Amino acid sequence: MLSPTFLIRPMQAADLPEVLHIQAACFTELQPESRASLAAKLQAAPAHCWVAAHQGSGGLAAYLFALPWRAEAPPLLDAADCVLPARADCLYLHDLSVHPKARGSGLAQALVQRFLQSLEASGLDRACLIAVQNSASFWGRWGFAPRPVSAQLRRKLASYGPDAHYLERRG
After folding, report:
1. Which of 88, 135, 141, 143 has the fewest CB atoms within 10 Å of its CB?
2. Considering its fold, how many domains does the chain have in total?
3. pTM here?
4. CATH number of the domain that 134 lies in?
5. What is the block-wise mean pLDDT of the chain (171 residues), using blocks of 10 residues?
6. What's 32-78 look like in SS3?
7. Angstrom distances, CA of residue 157 to CA of 61, 84, 135, 148
8. CA–CA separation, 11 and 14 (whole Å)
9. Domain that holds residue 135
């Protein structure tokens, strides 16, 4: 259950320094993305990026980046630009991170629910993601399942770390 002291709201460019701090605290197997890369993703799809902000201090405890994208062709990690495809066929969940001090607070669930609401509103019929850092079981609880992948996608998955899995969810 979401702590009543947090509010899920749209991400803003001014949030990026705190987002980078959360990312650095969470990524243990991957190199964190640069500010330029995250700013490009936010600029490309601001309607699909959210933060969990403390209602008192305004400080952030979690975030989620998503992009209308092409299935089986995830965006490059740490790319300085982000150009949305002309015809997206999925809502790609690029990154969900909850600061270690806020784990167990319901923030991940609240952000995933917001993502799924956005998926429904988008008219797209599937969500895609790459599960990293042993998170596949977490995503399985949300209906995401492994799909067969092409050799090209398998090569791209290697850049996401040793435990990267491509997952999809319909509807």
Report:
1. 141
2. 1
3. 0.94
4. 3.40.630.30
5. 80 98 91 95 98 92 98 91 96 98 95 97 97 96 95 90 93 75
6. CCCHHHHHHHHHHCHHHEEEEEECCCCCEEEEEEEEEECCCCCCCCC
7. 27, 20, 14, 13
8. 8
9. 6-170
